[in-house]
Amino acid sequence: MTPPCPGASRAGAAGGALVALIACGCAWVPQRAPSPAPVVNGAVASSTVLNQYLLLLQRLVQGKLSEQAEIVASAQRDYDTAPTPSRELKLALVFGTPGHPATDLPRAQGLLRELMADPEMLLPGERALAFLVLSQIDDHLTLDAENRRLQSEAVRADQQRMANANHRLQAELDENTRLRRELEEARAKLDAIANIERSLNERKPGSTGR
Collapsing DSSP states into helix, strand and coil, what is residue 71? Predict the structure, then answer.
């Protein structure tokens, strides 16, 4: 009997091991390097987001009351569900846009100030939009407060002038009343004197002729 060839034995053993590895799903396969993450163009992303905001606000201003109410409710619902910076900005823009019943500038101001306290959470375009709208709302509310103050001061000034005029008028009426009373008293005294003189004349004996 011919003894087995050592090389053949080693080849058979290697082949058996390879078959075993393949059967176990453990065959070595060269790994590819992971694909790099796609590069996001910040300018394009900001432009897309800003366009979406502007279209939303256009619908809000030009829409019917029912559509306006739905836009406001949707923005509030989205924010309540997940208050992300973008959703907070959208809600602030909705409240800060005039021309619909839900306009609420003080609330929009509060939301925008929260966002600007941590602006890095927004896209560059969102930050610019939030800053611009917040500046406009601040100016509007400041002018509105100043206008109310001036109106209040004007009302108080008118009330003061009216009070002063009424005071002068009342003083003149009181003075006229006093003068009228003094005049009546003087007339009464004159009438009394006249009555006394007439009474004396009537009692005086008439002169007799000779």
Answer: helix
pLDDT range class, residue 19, cuts 50, 70, 90: very low
- Inter-residue contact 105 to 96 (CB < 8 Å): yes
pLDDT, tens digit (0-9, with 9 covering 90-100), for 132-149: 999 999 999 999 999 999
> Tokens 């500038």 belong to which residue?
105
Contact between residue 42 and residue 124 where contact means Cβ atoms under 8 Å apart: yes
DSSP per-residue codes, 191-206: HHHHHHHHHHHHHSPP
Residue spans of the domains in the chain: they are 49-145
161 vs 164: CA distance, rounded Å: 5
Give the Cα separation of 132 and 111 in Å (integer).
14
Taking alpha carbons only, the member of 107, 104, 97 closest to residue 59 is 97
Residues sharing a CB contact under 8 Å with residue 131, sequence separation 6 or more, in sequence order: 116, 119
CA distances from 21 to 10, 29, 40, 171 (A): 16, 12, 42, 118
Given a contact cutoff of 8 angstroms between Cβ atoms, the answer to whether 45 and 30 are in contact is: no
Distance CA 64, CA 159 (A): 43
Q: How far apart are the first and last CA of the chain?
A: 216
Asked if 51 contacts 73 with a C-beta cutoff of 8 angstroms, the reply is: no
